[in-house]
Amino acid sequence: MCDTCGCGSSETRFTIKKPGQAEYVYAHTDHDHDHTHHHNHDHVHPHDHNHVHSHGHDFEHLHDHHNEKTISIETDVLQKNNLLAQRNRGYFEAKAILALNMVSSPGSGKTTILERTLHTLKDRIKISVIEGDQQTTLDANRISATTVPVVQINTGSGCHLDAAMINKAVKELDPPDKSLLMIENVGNLVCPALFDLGENFRVVIVSVTEGEDKPLKYPQMFMSSQICLINKTDLLPYVDFSVDKLKEYINKVNHHLVCIELSAKTGEGFDKWIDWLRGIVKSD
Amino acid sequence: MHEFSIVVNIIDIAESTALEHNANGVSEVEVEVGDASGVSIEALEFAWESAIASSRPLKNTKLKIQNIPLLARCSQCQHQYTATELYEACPFCGAINPVIIQGRELRVKSIVLADQ
After folding, report:
1. What is the DSSP letter of A264?
2. Same domain assignment for residues A230 and A118
3. What digits encode the pLDDT tens for the residues A180-194?
4. How far is CA B89 from each of CA A198, A247, A282, rounded to the nearest angstrom?
5. What's the ipTM?
6. A74 touches chain B (CB under 8 A)
7. pTM of the prediction?
8. CATH code for the domain in which residue A104 is found
9. Containing domain of residue A51, as a range?
10. What are phi and psi of A153, to 5 degrees?
11. Strands, E assignment, A2-97
12. Which residue in B has a C-alpha nearest to residue A67's C-alpha?
């Protein structure tokens, strides 16, 4: 079944494109295979016993049917995604790839931050990029112009990237050992928070043209991130935005979150971000 | 609306359990949803109705949702309190950044299989 629309047909689920090359289409059937394997083994067997004893009675009272059987499952709904994310994580670890999941609302400057980062670091560190958007290869084309390898995931109507998409995209991208993999998620501060991709660090970006109260409104995203980039600081004189207030709210939600103020447009404060990146990459 | 993806995951789990047990159908799926799971129960219920329409074993399956309240423990005074926000300060000592001990659950608890 389709992950985004729920239809039973074998329409396209998501597509992976490389600028200038044919696209790769992943249909529903790819997915159906994966989960059948995982679930059959992981959770049904260990729990077989519990349910008959503990729950058998309740349901006989609740329903009049004779042949109903309650199976205790106790399985995380996102287990399939989490298992696949751990597989991605293992692959990254084995190849000494450092993966960053860049998340933000639309228009806060993720792609511009990426472009400047690539221009600054591409000659010193091996980098590759996965772009996530609902439609178009516009972002991948921008990244491709920097000569850094990139693949574009189009989620269709999906509001987030998931571990399965990254798993497939990484196979197309084939990032080198000891490199940095930057994943630009779909612009959305809500849904991507729940979907682990297997990244090492989650980077949340907030720009000064948004409200300072974003961390309070979308706490899941700020709680699950390790780095916060406060972008567009060149616009501070023109907007009614208090960086102190933003940091106060961030501190309320996640006091471990490291904040870096920068402007991807002018480059102001960008060296701190570059230093942080160089500090975490094991590249030589 | 990521609730649709969540519902599809729940349906996958229920379908493979039905298959595993050779059941003809599923009459009920019980899901635990924590207040801080990041999932809206209303959106989940809405997505459920349209999603099960295309699943043969889950047609007419009832979704039973058990809501789990958010429970926090103060990292300073260790007091436990129910909270409405993930970052709610301790009502006893005022400390922020509590440890969330309950309310992030998003779990399929049980499935009722219909054999006939």
Report:
1. T
2. yes
3. 999 999 999 999 999
4. 31, 17, 39
5. 0.89
6. yes
7. 0.84
8. 3.40.50.300
9. 43-75
10. -100, 125
11. 12-17, 24-27, 68-76
12. B115
